[in-house]
């Protein structure tokens, strides 16, 4: 089975289309005001409308108010929700949409318990833990902390780039990898050359 790819933190239509052209399976839109990759509802709607069939549009939220998420859903064509804060399972389920739960991994993180608690999630997205920061840090965590017997698919994130994605895939064997800063020229601005190099790395990994 090939490893899927999500390119997150898209802020421009042209970057979304470049990601699709290079073979990305999903793009991510960040709805978190504190992020340098935050998009407005109007921006997101334009980007999502430009994405062709068979590419998923993911909306990322961090402890967002329900009314805001509903506002986004009313205007933006999202295929899956990604919850990157401390949302309880019941909060993730209330929108009757497929969702992923992001977990910031450190020593002692019980990923088996998370997989049980969020059993109806489509995947666990595993990112690096950094105090006070919900994600997008560019940090790599210790992949050996990921148990082999997780009951949910793993989307591996955290500091991935063209230089380390082969090793990451071969060690973790995730369902998908998620990249943002590793394919950027500036925060929120993607680089076609870096996207191409990342996709080659994914293709070259032996699984």
TrEMBL record:
Belongs to the TrpF family. The keyword Amino-acid biosynthesis applies. It comes from the Bacteria. NCBIfam families: PRK01222.1-4, PRK01222.1-6. The keyword Hydrolase does not apply. GO terms for molecular function: phosphoribosylanthranilate isomerase activity. The gene is trpF. Residues 5-199 form the N-(5'phosphoribosyl) anthranilate isomerase (PRAI) domain. Pathway: Amino-acid biosynthesis; L-tryptophan biosynthesis; L-tryptophan from chorismate: step 3/5. GO terms for biological process: L-tryptophan biosynthetic process. Gene3D superfamilies: Aldolase class I. Keywords: Amino-acid biosynthesis, Aromatic amino acid biosynthesis, Isomerase, Tryptophan biosynthesis. It comes from Candidatus Methylopumilus turicensis. It catalyses: N-(5-phospho-beta-D-ribosyl)anthranilate = 1-(2-carboxyphenylamino)-1-deoxy-D-ribulose 5-phosphate. Its EC number is 5.3.1.24. This is N-(5'-phosphoribosyl)anthranilate isomerase.
């Amino acid at each position: 089975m090939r490893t899927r790819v999500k390119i997150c933190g898209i802020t421009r239509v042209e970057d979304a289309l470049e990601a699709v052209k290079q073979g990305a399976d999903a793009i991510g839109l960040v709805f978190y005001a504190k992020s340098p990759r935050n998009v407005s509802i109007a921006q997101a709607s334009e980007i999502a409308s430009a994405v062709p069939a068979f590419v998923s549009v993911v909306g990322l939220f961090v402890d967002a108010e329900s009314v805001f998420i509903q506002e986004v859903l009313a205007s933006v064509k999202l295929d899956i929700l990604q919850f990157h804060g401390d949302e309880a399972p019941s909060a993730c389920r209330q929108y009757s949409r497929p969702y992923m739960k992001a977990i910031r991994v450190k020593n002692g993180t019980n990923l088996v318990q998370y997989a049980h608690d969020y059993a109806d999630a489509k995947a666990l997205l595993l990112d690096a833990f950094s105090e006070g920061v919900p994600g997008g840090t560019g940090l790599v965590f210790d992949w050996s902390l990921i148990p082999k017997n997780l009951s949910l698919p793993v989307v591996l994130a955290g500091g991935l780039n063209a230089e380390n994605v082969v090793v990451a895939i071969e060690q973790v064997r995730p369902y998908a990898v998620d990249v943002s800063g590793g394919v950027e020229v500036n925060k929120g601005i993607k680089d076609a050359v870096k996207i191409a190099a990342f996709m080659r790395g994914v293709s070259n990994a032996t699984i």
